[in-house]
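Lab meeting notes turned into a lecture example. A postdoc, R.K., suggested we walk through two folding results consecutively so the class can see how the record format repeats. The first protein's sequence and structure tokens come next.
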Amino acid sequence: MSMFCFQCQETAKNEGCTVKGVCGKTDEVSNLQDVLVFAAKGVAAYSSQLRNAGKRYDKVDEYLYRSLFISITNANFDGDEIIEAIKEGVNLRKFLKSELEKAGIALDPKFENNFLTTYEYSANDDLVELSKKVGVLRTENIDVRSLREMVLYGLKGMAAYGFHAYNLGSTDNDIYKFYEKALLATVDDSLSAEELTALVFETGEYGVKVMALLDGANTSAYGTPVATEVNIGVGKNPGILISGHDLKDIKELLEQTEGTGVDVYTHSEMLPAHYYPELKKYKHLVGNYGNAWYHQVTEFETFNGPVVFTTNCIVPPRPNSTYNDRIFTLNAAGYPGWKKLKADENGKIDYTEVIELAKKCEAPKEIETGTIVGGFAHGQVFAVADKVVEAVKSGAIKKFIVMSGCDARMARRSYYTEFAEKLPKDTVILTSGCAKFRYNKLGLGDINGIPRVLDAGQCNDSYSWAVVALKLKEIFNANDINDLPIEFNIAWYEQKAVIVLLALLYLGIKNIHVGPTLPAFISPNVAKLLNEQFGLGSITNVEDDLKMFFA
């Protein structure tokens, strides 16, 4: 065993990757990611005390989010870049130590002479042994390990959403306080299983808060999403394809490409950029190219032009791929040999190199035609609330199925396409994230003008369905959110889906089904607890699950 990672849905045998990640990361990168997370915990040991004393440092806030974001599945495969982030964390820890001394604050005794606060990176580190000391397997008790990793993976999801909000100037010090507390709790051997269980649900509480923070940041900057038909064909101009999740990055790209003769296309989770008024106003934002992230190894070939990765999800290119010299990464994303664009002192990215390269490329090759419809975040749904309520009261809509989440490569995920196709015609799918690509081109029609697939946007926009559910509870005077005609059949893949799940559990939503498998990091005892307390379960097959949801 040269590594151990079980943070994503595709982990080997649904147990753990031990030689190389199914995602494509090497054992070295996996072990470095473990060390990076450990370095972030070392920073938190100092920053938490300073924050509680009223002292806050912007570079620390940014690092705490970015460091965990780098370790998310499919975000960064570049070992050298991860090493630099580890060194940055060690240096930040030293800076904070001096700040603590200047303030006359004594370090918490439990961190004195602790490896967490004394670790120094060395190129001679035995990464396999170091990972065993600081990574997943450091915790021997599988139930404690399960609870610690649920908290950590929830924090990784929070870090992604918090990082996007941070880039838009939106932060919340209370969220950072919890984030630091929870990071340090994962290395606190004094905490009982009961205390860790409570922390899991508290992580869900702060997951709701960080998603609300990002929702507010996005809508303040780019307007409230509106129902939009998005072109899935191509134009005649050369183009730039932008993937990932960060809307600030696409805004800057649109500004810099305007009038250049270069079109911009979204890819995968960047599709919802078309729904925001301040982004869709750009005429050269032509459409969305392709499908979910894992199709990129073929779609990047046919796109012909440059590709910009603002965040995850990266798939390692094939040995014969022809697009490596036209891929650019930003922020937490990285891959060996791909060009990295870094923000200037004002936080802006200069896309000149990308634009000039695009001008030399052929226009994208057409792989499909038509349009898809989205933009049904909570603001848009509330705008047509009267129509929705009437459809429910009249019986035209009998049930809503939340099918938000992630798509990925596992063959069993064809379940979600079949499930959507076989749903009763009086059912509406509420979706967000890249899971939508399993059924958003099926032409499932509408109910009294209400599309049967309502796409709220990116994975973080799962928050919208919680807001909508709470509003419907109020409208229908329901005693409990679980009394509403709403079911949850969630597809998961990586850690942003974990924080969404924990947020839903915090809100008290029961009988959630996740698939295509339950997370490997949920131990049998923890799974039993979640099933007994919340009815959490996994998908089975389409026929039996339809009977269960519509019993």
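The second example is placed directly after the first for contrast:
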Amino acid sequence: MRIHFTYAAVTAAVLSCVSTSALSQETNSNIETLTVTGSRLPVQVTQFPGSVSVLTQSDIEASGAVQLTELIRGLPGVSLSQSGSPGGLTEVRVRGSETNHLLVLIDGVVANDIGQGSLIDLAHLTSANVVRIELLRGPQSARWGSGAIGGVLSITTKAGQSTQDYSSLNLTAGVGTQGTYQGSVNATSQIDKLNIAAYANYITTDGDNIARTGNEDDGYDNLTAGLNLNYQVSAEHGFIARLRTVDYENEYDGTDFVSTGLPTDSDNVTDGYQVSTQFRWDYTPTSSAYHSRLSANYRQDENDNTTAGIDAGGTTGERIELNWTNFYSLDNWQFAGGIEYLQRLFSQRGPINFGDPNQKQHDNTHSVFAEANGALTPSLFATLSARLDDNSEFDDANSYRAGLTWQVDERYALFTSYGKAVKTPTFTERFGYFPASFIGNENLEPETSEEYEVGLKANWHRMSGQVSLFSAELDNEINGFVFVADLGAFSADNVDGKSHRDGVDVEVDWNSDFGNLSASYSYLDAEQTNEGVTSTELRRARHQGALVYTSDLGTERFTLYGKLAYTGTRYDTFFPPFPASAQTIALSAYTLASVNLGYQVTDQWQLTLKVNNLFDTDYEDIVGFAGQERRALLSVHYQM
């Protein structure tokens, strides 16, 4: 792993916060407001005309989760595909969409990896210092642009949350099975008009053996750090600067293409580095219904691979975004509109063997967008958003979304929505990989998805819940591996057919005298039609669900968190050695159990024991890749 100047800056910021927090130890009650901040115009969850799940800071802390996948597994509509050991590729699909159809925001900055087809690899997102997670299901491109077909996953860290006017310090150290060690620090400080927040988290593990044979474990190291500076110049002007970096090293197995077609022990390593930055100016005139926000966001993902110590190639994806959004309030309505410029840069490198993979490409997108929400009547709430994208490489794309929520009475609300979202082709699909064997297609059209949704939200004295039914149709889906006879090579092309995704998402919470119980269930029917042939979409379970129980066990010091997450039967493609043909394989259903037991030693010290895969269940999300084994982590926490 590489150590960058970033960590020196974060360390200095933490020390600055610690020196202040030692003098100021005021208690604070951080009240979580159930407001959807993953949209440009914040709206109460009960009013939002769509299906949304929110995990608050108390939910995250109670779980004792180390990786983000532990938190979102079992959420309605979420399908995870993990290639084994921690650090291995972890794909996420929402409502049957593709892996690059979910847009992920970390403190408001898009985190999708352009170099890897704009997918999000959840393997490198740790839950340390995360205080809020929102999953907005359904098309959201009208708000956030290309890629938000299945939805938006918005992640807020402690450094990215609203400014705190007090100082704090949190430390965690843990040791566990599989040679796992973990440590984190988070500190905030208020110095006159300047708020400083910094965090760092390190985890290392020997990992598991993901192959069906052999005994080589695949290790993983991850160092994540972040820094946030918030300077309120006056009541009208505020400036924010944010920096987040992830430096990781992941060992992974190769595939035996000669004998089995399955993973086999290999000396393969990925060295990755991610950086996100944001500079923002908020202008809020006094006694005015208008305010504006000007921001500059930057994201870089760098991946380099080696096989037995030999360079195996890598990619770098960069995203430069300039955004100017204007807000206006009028009576019970909120309006937002603005312009955006996005430049995406792609670099691919590697040894010249079967062709020269080295290339550099880029594209530009100019966008205009608008959004509004408000009350049509005292019981009828409406949202409307639209966006136009002008891309330098592809046809112009438009996105929109409209929704209504009817508050029937104080307990029940009905909602419905209709939206269209888009996903532009990846750089590999557009420009190719190997000039001699995989050629890009300049005639590709963006993928488009239209979705209808209708649902019910209920809120009783101690119980709340929501159920939604949706139907989505994906058009112009891109097949990234098509043989073109005229060229004598492979390429990418839009599919001659549509993909249909229909389903039901259910979520219920019950706060009883014996603890809090949450239940979720998803049903999905996802099919793809290509040239008149209909087939079931791969790696998507028809049935999924989860049960989560939290309790203080009737004491003032103990806390208990337990979770059961069920994943139904899925299908995957197995490629046996040549000359055998590819096979569609059914993957068995499984249930994973996890538990976290906490003991509050004093007001400042706490001990926790987290166990994942409690019953050491054998399972596979991808053919041949064994799932993570049972693992335990004992941690000590200190807060000041």
